[in-house]
Amino acid sequence: MANFDGPGFSMVDKSWIQTKAIDIEPSTDISPYLSRILEDCVWNGNRAIVFDVYWDVESVNTKSERRLSSVKLSTKNLCLFLRLPNQFTDNLKDLYRFFASKFVTFVGVQIEEDLVLLKENHGIVIRSYLEIGKLAAVARGTPIVEFLGARELAHKILSCDMSRLDSIQSKWDEAGADDRLEAAAIEGWLIYNVYDQLQQ
Amino acid sequence: MANFDGPGFSMVDKSWIQTKAIDIEPSTDISPYLSRILEDCVWNGNRAIVFDVYWDVESVNTKSERRLSSVKLSTKNLCLFLRLPNQFTDNLKDLYRFFASKFVTFVGVQIEEDLVLLKENHGIVIRSYLEIGKLAAVARGTPIVEFLGARELAHKILSCDMSRLDSIQSKWDEAGADDRLEAAAIEGWLIYNVYDQLQQ
Amino acid sequence: MANFDGPGFSMVDKSWIQTKAIDIEPSTDISPYLSRILEDCVWNGNRAIVFDVYWDVESVNTKSERRLSSVKLSTKNLCLFLRLPNQFTDNLKDLYRFFASKFVTFVGVQIEEDLVLLKENHGIVIRSYLEIGKLAAVARGTPIVEFLGARELAHKILSCDMSRLDSIQSKWDEAGADDRLEAAAIEGWLIYNVYDQLQQ
Amino acid sequence: MANFDGPGFSMVDKSWIQTKAIDIEPSTDISPYLSRILEDCVWNGNRAIVFDVYWDVESVNTKSERRLSSVKLSTKNLCLFLRLPNQFTDNLKDLYRFFASKFVTFVGVQIEEDLVLLKENHGIVIRSYLEIGKLAAVARGTPIVEFLGARELAHKILSCDMSRLDSIQSKWDEAGADDRLEAAAIEGWLIYNVYDQLQQ
Amino acid sequence: MANFDGPGFSMVDKSWIQTKAIDIEPSTDISPYLSRILEDCVWNGNRAIVFDVYWDVESVNTKSERRLSSVKLSTKNLCLFLRLPNQFTDNLKDLYRFFASKFVTFVGVQIEEDLVLLKENHGIVIRSYLEIGKLAAVARGTPIVEFLGARELAHKILSCDMSRLDSIQSKWDEAGADDRLEAAAIEGWLIYNVYDQLQQ
Amino acid sequence: MANFDGPGFSMVDKSWIQTKAIDIEPSTDISPYLSRILEDCVWNGNRAIVFDVYWDVESVNTKSERRLSSVKLSTKNLCLFLRLPNQFTDNLKDLYRFFASKFVTFVGVQIEEDLVLLKENHGIVIRSYLEIGKLAAVARGTPIVEFLGARELAHKILSCDMSRLDSIQSKWDEAGADDRLEAAAIEGWLIYNVYDQLQQ
Questions:
Q1: Which residue in chain D is spatially nearest to C131 when comparing CA positions?
Q2: d(C-alpha B4, C-alpha B75), whole Å
Q3: Which GO terms describe its cellular component (chains A, B, C, D, E, F) (predicted)?
Q4: Which value does ipTM take for this structure?
Q5: Chains F and B: 3 or more CB pairs within 8 Å of each other
Q6: Residue C72 lies in a domain
Q7: Is F103's Cβ below 8 Å from some Cβ in A?
Q8: Does residue F1 form part of some domain?
């Protein structure tokens, strides 16, 4: 079984997130990590996987293009951070198939534009997804939360201490790899808990 | 009359689902199976056929393409699982015509993207369909159910024991053919019952 | 005046539907039949013509195409079933013009996809149409009826005996020409009565 | 000043509609008639011009095309019926400009498809228009009227005697030129009165 | 400072509108007039500029094209009427930039189609605009006003004497240049006052 | 750390906005300024960055094109004004990436058209944005504020003294560089405070 042997981080409620960051190369087998994420989501969570995608900007003259550079997947206990290669490699199919899974709901913040780009630029289709800000706006009757980023959305719904996340993100350019991974884990955990809260 | 001679599975309410999995080859006549599904749906059900489609990922450079690989059709008592060949064969027309039937309503979960792909990639049009999550969200006044996968949607509406399904899906990569067929039958049965419930 | 000299069928309320099925050939003059439908609809009905269209599936490699193969037109007393030729023939213009009539409202079930295909594939525009399921959903406050086929929609609104229709449709592949025509007449009559009911 | 020297017709409320039918030829000057319509609409009406457009079906293989063949313009006292030539002639610009007028609101029934075709096929844009069925549906709280043709819409709102119109339209193929003009005048007058009623 | 030295007109409430009509030639500097409009709108009004655009119809075979021929800009005290040349001239950039201003809201009636044509045919984007009929419909709860032209919309909201405008517009083809300018000024003034009323 | 060494301006509530205007050249490193904006927004604000973009009009025949010429970014204490070069330079990628940030919500007025142009003309995607006028319209129940420019929107929500802004904008063509920068700072500050108000 895949080992999430990256650093672990303690959240403000003392829960623990185990992380794994992978630079995907042609020979990397990511399927065990995806299976472990799936398993954790089925057994411990509510079949929700919080995800976020990151784009690299490439430019041609006055135009810029976007290429999927990283993917973050979070469950109750795990956070997987995948850095994608510049060229398509065959093992990425595992990721593409994972996104098409109907077993789980992929939960994201401000993902509308991402979903369009994923399909247009890479042909990736996320089958079962939830724009959680829109749902929160309806469920709570507060239209503004539809337009917030992950941190502010969580702040509105969970009202928990955000100082660690703020501290890392305010000095993002100077942050080290582990700090950035911690910020990713915190954001994933926050949205996971927002989703959990909205379910009740 | 077509014989559903695959394994049968007992559901949590002791009802019985008879299955049939077919690898479609050029010489396979699928029409008797489709006729039997239709007949079962007309006589025993409420003219609803629960369906799900599965896609294979093919890739060209940084882009991926999707090809319809399997179709699942479920009624009250039957579950038909069709694996499609890579190349179009003439007998698939029977399936395409079946999807265009106006006698029944095809019921699915998170099917919006599927319907687009079916039309764009294969020219298949499902005439009379129902995105059951959307309906459940309106009928129950709980917006979140629109965004759930089959299992969570059923969990919210039916509150029945899901441990067998969870057990199979959490170890999907290691599951055998019969276990996967059982999971397919359970999911079909769950959605069938959600639909039934929403009708009342 | 055109003679509807096909078989007549008795409905469950003892009303009588006179039918006519025509295989359109280049020399067939369909206009007298369309005129008679129009006249019946103006004098006896509420200017509603229930219609249904049927498609033939043609395939090219992994793609399929649809070609209009038949059209059903129903009024209070009449049911006209037109089988169209493979090639466009000049007399079909009468049908195309008939669909563009503004004297009447064309009433159908689950016709959204049909209307798109009629325009895209054949340039046919139905000027004044009504998707009756959507209307029924609004008028009755029961969202589910928007998604039902003709039989189930009628079942929800009219609650009349459907055994004859079920009997024919459950064994569709084995049904004879007259049985199929009777099923067509019954479905037309059912939707006509749903429309009538919703008007009150 | 343009002379509406076609037949005049008495409506069921004893009001009088003066008509003019014109076959437009390259030398025909239609602007005086349009000016008179405009003047009547400004002084006697509520700046509403009821319009209807008619299409000719032309076919190429399995596809059909539509070409604007006639236009009907109705005010409180006048009904102008213009038959257009097959080829574009310069004097049609007067009609195109008339449609773009912002002085008045053009009122029609089931015109959505017409507006698209007018723009796509002929580049004609009606600047200020009103789909009266949609408005009536909202104003009266009866969703069904959105989907009705002119006669049934008027029937629902005005409840006046329609026997003369029914008599002509039920035998449309056998109707003479004057009868058809009378039907056009009656339909125009009906919609004009529906609009008037909805204003109050 | 630009001089609005065209005729001035007295409105029904005794307010005074000073006008300027300009035939734009390659050497015409329109920017001082636009600056004066902007200044008037900032100091005396509520940052609203009422605008209207006029199109010339050009035809190719059965199709017609539209070319922006004139623009009307109205504030509380001023009405500027610009007639544009057939060919693009460099000084028109001042107008294009003016339309993109974010200092003010451009207010129009039935402008949806205009905005599309401005962008498609001339690449002009009005940044901050208001379709006042739609707003009035919502604000007053009277759906019909969304579909009215400028005069009728103003009539519904302001109920002031329209006889001068009616008198000019009913005989539009015979109206002289000054009468037409007066009608333009009156319409601009009416909409300006409708906007003012809706603000309160 | 980047130094905002442009002029500082006092707002009507005595708060102070420090500004920086940069003409971007190929060798300019804008990332420290963007980092400082981000940091200020994380620590002092509510993770909102108010932005505005400005376009240059270029024309080809009767058509005009738009090119992004400047960008304004405002936080609680800072206002950064970037003038972009005609040609794409590599350092602009920093700005493009900044716009794609998910840490913050980009807040703008009447930005719908801007967002489309940013994507179409330059491939720039703002990931997390808020059209504040729309939100204010919903939150306050006053539909008109959706359509207002920055100054009028702020006027409706904040009711503070606008005379300095009015004074500069009414004489815009004659305004000097510092006055224009002050107007930019005031507008940014106004919208920042509108957002702040709507949050409560």
A1: D147
A2: 13
A3: cytoplasm; nucleus
A4: 0.82
A5: no
A6: yes
A7: yes
A8: no
Span C142-148, mean pLDDT?
89
Q: D51 to chain C nearest CA, in Å?
A: 13
Contact C90 D59 (CB under 8 A): yes
CB–CB of E26/E91 below 8 Å?
A: yes
What total number of domains does chain A contain?
Answer: 1
Give contacts of A121 with chain B, Cβ < 8 Å.
62-63
Confirm if B74 and B58 have CB atoms less than 8 A apart.
no
DSSP labels, chain D: -----S-EEE-TTS-EEEEEEEE--TT---HHHHHHHHHHHHHTSSSEEEEEEEEEEEEETTEEEEEEEEEEEE-SSEEEEEEPPSS--TTHHHHHHHHT-SSSEEEESS-HHHHHHHHHHH----SSEEEHHHHHHHHHT-GGGGG--HHHHHHHHH----HHHHHHHHTGGG--HHHHHHHHHHHHHHHHHHHHHHH-
Residue D141 φ/ψ region, left for φ over 0, alpha for ψ in the -120 to 50 degree band, beta for the rest:
left
Enclosing domain of residue B37: 6-199
State the pTM of this model: 0.80
Q: pLDDT value at position F87?
A: 84
Smallest Cβ–Cβ distance between F152 and the set E105, E129, E198 belongs to E105
Q: What is the CATH classification number for the domain harbouring D147? A: 3.30.420.10
Closest CA of chain C from D1, distance in Å? 33
pLDDT, tens digit, 9 for 90 and up, residues A135-194: 999 888 888 899 899 999 999 999 899 999 999 999 888 899 999 999 999 999 999 999
Amino acid (1-letter code) at residue B18: Q
Nearest by CB: E47 against F65, F151, F171:
F151
Helix (H), strand (E), coil (C) string for chain F? CCCCCCCEEECCCCCEEEEEEEECCCCCCCHHHHHHHHHHHHHCCCCEEEEEEEEEEEEECCEEEEEEEEEEEECCCEEEEEECCCCCCCCHHHHHHHHCCCCCEEEECCCHHHHHHHHHHHCCCCCCEEEHHHHHHHHHCCHHHHHCCHHHHHHHHHCCCCHHHHHHHHCHHHCCHHHHHHHHHHHHHHHHHHHHHHHC
Q: What are the average pLDDT values for consecutive 10-residue runs of chain F, which has 200 residues?
A: 92 96 96 95 90 85 81 97 91 91 92 91 89 92 89 92 93 92 97 91
CA distances from E55 to A100, C160, E74, F60 (A): 50, 58, 18, 20
Lowest mean pLDDT among C164-178, D49-63, F102-116: D49-63
Chains that touch D (3 or more CB pairs under 8 A): C, E
Highest mean pLDDT range out of A91-95, C31-35, E138-142? C31-35
Query: Is residue C135 in a domain?
Result: yes
Residue C25 lies in a domain: yes
Percent residues over pLDDT 90 in chain B:
69
Residue E76 DSSP symbol:
S
